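Request: When convenient, would you put together a sequence paired with its structure tokens?
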Amino acid sequence: MTHREADRRKFRLIASLSAVAVVAAGTATVALAAKDGDPAPRSAFVPIEQVNKNVVNPKVGQNGAAGVFTVDCGTNENGKFSADNPVAQPGLQHGAQHVHDFVGNLSISADSSDESLEDAETTCRNGDRSSYFWPVVRINPKANPGSSGSSPDKIKETGPGEVACPGVADRLPAVPQRVRDEVTKNLQLLEQQLKEANDRVARTDNPGDPNFVNNAILGPLRSKRVATLDRIAIAIGRSARKPNLVNLADCDVRFGHGNHGGGGHNGHSTAPRKFSGQGMSQQQQQQQEQDAATPTIKCPSVRGALPGVPDQAIEEVNRNLALLDKQIAEANQRIVTTKGQGGPNFVDNAILGPLKDKRVATLDRIAIAIGRNGERPQGLDRLARCGLNGGDQGGNNNGGNNGNGNNGGNNNGGNNNGGNNNGGNNGGATTTTAPPLAAPTGRNLELVGNVGKIVRPAQVKIEYRGNATSKVTGMPKFLKMVTGDAKPTSRGPANARATWTCSGFEDRLSDKYVVCPQGSKVMRVHDFAGCWDGQNADSANHRDHVRFADKQTGACPQGFKAIPQLRISISYDISRDVQQKGQYQLDAFPEENHNPFSDHNDFANVNSEQTMNKIVKCVNDGRKCRE
């Protein structure tokens, strides 16, 4: 029997078992194929009265913590929308292939570093710089009540899958000269591992089978990347501070790139062009800009262009690399806070121009620092000019073409391929990321079959809650968490969570969209894990460092300690007529076909130590606090 025939037989067996498991679990229903842009199927809706009461609230014991600390971060009034997922897909622009609502930190993007988040402005009233984000909800009036839920057949329509991994070289600290060759070797190994995984996907009859993809492709790839990333970190750590690279280990198979995405073709950005202003009043121009997609800054790779750095210059170079990250974060924040202001040249003159000047000075300091004890790198100033990722301004940025064989700033509509470039740094390893996906486009920010008008939340309630059996300890700064699973079709339902309910019916949660009684709001309730391993702020799959407490007792698993348990409740004013017609839907990955069971939420903790201490004290004291 050939390997190909064995794979096919394995796929048929696992697919049948998987289908039985899904039906037995009562989760997402098996579906027929649906076209891009089709609304969520009518069978994915259920009247809330037909959902059994299923929310269990364990009784708080004598040693438990019953308090609740509520934070007001608004409802995304700033219009910070993005298809980035900085927690689960760091470094992959538009990697989510669906649009997220963001509240809290105003600077966060796929390229953010932890340090760049600390100085950002925030939408939270108490100054909390954490980032909270979730998929948007849309209204699609083209109801098609024919098919149901998600389906592996949907994946077939989107074309062959492609494994995408976070870039590594462009997220490394300065690499010491003495380990440059070793780091280069391991970067090249990452590239080889990715190639082998994509070859396996190409040979697979159905890459949408969750068990096969995860067990035979993504699981082994993650394990290999964890080991390789650890070798890179150890090598750097011999001469400098050892970096934590674990959050770059997880990869995913993505579908729908190329000709999907509301006009996105071949991975090029199709975001709205600069406004000419012809035939529009100033007020109309400002409104059009306010409704447009929010782009992010994209700069040529600097880390990817540096040679090995002398030991004496490591700390100084790293300080300046961190400064470059903060400069980009500040520019991203200005794009959000000045949205709709200043006319067509505002971003160029008020944001990109000053950013270039700052980068020129910082790049010069890096070159001088390296040159004191080694050969000074030449031409770094050509990496100073930045453009927009998901916009046309600055789109033809050639600044990153640094002579090291990388694509640098050959920016297709603002999607700078150099941003994920693993070349340049340490001898020319090639990229370990897939080409960029299309940006959200048009007034409704549509892409990858996610179409229709975005529904703004009527209310967002962010709560830090206690534990039924023990006092809570503070979350570590920069803790990353996800809840739910954006891909229960391709990854299986193990991590997916029911989130849908109606106001007044919070004692029940559904894995289907809900139809609410008159006067009741559609709600999504996202509970995050409330137990932490006490050591790690992230993990290779972004899950293993945290756990959910026992549903019945509220106790944390052995080896885990209780932390303030985050709950985010989002309410929407959606007309009952729209609900009854099945016309509202969740933004999702293409293969999920707006599956309500693919709902999820992401969190990056940037609370100050002082604020986290206030949260812990409030919760442990059993009080109700609001800021």
Notes: The radius of gyration is 24 Å.
